């Protein structure tokens, strides 16, 4: 707005501080997007676990295949790491710590990348069923992919993280 007078009592912050205020809002949004990815990834792990127990190949459940057991273990490990990183960033933001921007950016970057990988792996482990609209996995893959773009792309997150590190 040009030449728009706003009474001091109606201002959200000090003059010239709008960008910083907006950035604080984005940090909470980044935790939210990362958490949405986490939910999709969690559901994908549960659905994949159930699928491996039910689906049979050559007379035995897919869950008996060590290769698939290892894939499921990796998915669960990525899930827990993402959850912990999101929680750490949320605590930093709540405490208004100096490292909150970097941690929120790291959590968004890490969680959305890892959770997309989890959902994508889940789709792969469901085989052709994973692409069918009757199976939620296909939706989780699409949803988690867009999370890598929302609230600042993951390339922007890398830029914010590196700036924070270089200013220390």
UniProtKB/TrEMBL annotation:
<keyword id="KW-0274">FAD</keyword>
<protein>
    <recommendedName>
        <fullName>short-chain 2-methylacyl-CoA dehydrogenase</fullName>
        <ecNumber>1.3.8.5</ecNumber>
    </recommendedName>
</protein>
<keyword id="KW-0560">Oxidoreductase</keyword>
<feature type="domain" description="Acyl-CoA dehydrogenase/oxidase C-terminal">
    <location>
        <begin position="16"/>
        <end position="166"/>
    </location>
</feature>
<dbReference type="GO" id="GO:0003853">
    <property type="term" value="F:short-chain 2-methyl fatty acyl-CoA dehydrogenase activity"/>
</dbReference>
<keyword id="KW-0285">Flavoprotein</keyword>
<dbReference type="Pfam" id="PF00441">
    <property type="entry name" value="Acyl-CoA_dh_1"/>
</dbReference>
<dbReference type="InterPro" id="IPR052547">
    <property type="entry name" value="Mito_Isobutyryl-CoADH"/>
</dbReference>
<comment type="similarity">
    <text>Belongs to the acyl-CoA dehydrogenase family.</text>
</comment>
<dbReference type="InterPro" id="IPR036250">
    <property type="entry name" value="AcylCo_DH-like_C"/>
</dbReference>
<dbReference type="InterPro" id="IPR009075">
    <property type="entry name" value="AcylCo_DH/oxidase_C"/>
</dbReference>
């Amino acid at each position: 707005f040009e030449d728009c007078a706003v009474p001091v009592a109606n201002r959200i912050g000090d003059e010239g501080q709008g960008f910083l205020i907006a950035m604080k809002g984005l940090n909470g949004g980044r935790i939210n997007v990362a958490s949405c990815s986490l939910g999709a990834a969690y559901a994908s792990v549960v659905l994949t676990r159930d699928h491996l127990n039910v689906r049979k190949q050559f007379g035995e459940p897919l869950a008996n295949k060590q290769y698939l057991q290892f894939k499921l273990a990796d998915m669960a490990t990525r899930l827990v790491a993402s959850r912990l990183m999101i929680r750490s960033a949320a605590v930093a933001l709540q405490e208004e710590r100096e490292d909150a921007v970097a941690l929120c950016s790291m959590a968004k970057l890490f969680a959305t990348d890892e959770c997309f990988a989890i959902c994508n792996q889940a789709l792969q482990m469901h085989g052709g069923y994973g692409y069918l609209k009757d199976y939620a996995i296909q939706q989780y893959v699409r949803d988690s992919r867009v999370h890598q773009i929302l609230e600042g792309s993951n390339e922007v997150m890398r830029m914010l993280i590196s700036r924070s590190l270089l200013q220390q």
